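Q: My labmate handed me this sequence with no annotations at all. I'd like to see what the chain might look like in three dimensions before we decide whether it's worth expressing. Could you predict it?
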Amino acid sequence: MMRSAISILILSLLISGSCKKDKVDKTYIPAYLEKMVPYKNNQTINFITTNGGILPTSVTVSRGFTEKSNCVGCAPYAIEEYANYEFKDGVHPFIRISIDVRPNIFMNIFSPADNYQIGNGFDFLTQEGSPQFLCNGPRQTCLSSIVLNGTTFTNVLEIISGASGPNDLVKAYYTVEKGLVGFKYGNGYTFSLKE
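A: Here is what I predict for the chain of 195 residues:
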């Protein structure tokens, strides 16, 4: 009995030892995409409202890796880096921007007018290999300039959320150098970057 238990143990060790696990290399966020998100950890970004109010936010940056596999418990076939940028108005999550190995910038804005409970997504495509957004992506258009709350911003990407109600977040504006420079509600009420 003892001999068969030892034989089974040795056999299982040999079988498990002979299964070669392929090493999966990590894929990192492309440098050009990192350049398009100009935020640092603990940075303070102020937004100004249409009526002149100031909304201070604090940025928290977190980074990590996500593993992709074909099933729960399976070895990963890909390990990819991601970075999250969360803006908070005090304790309220206000803006979330994230990037990973894809040529996209993912952005959600939560409405201060709805106590940060309702928001919209403004994801957009970038030019792969170059720190520039696409001007002809879905719901995105390049503008040479735009005036938001009295401030002129140049080389701006306008992203449309698809919502259309007066209290909905309908448009966001982004530049490579400054990141999110503003967003607008259907009724015209606007938040813009305070420079």
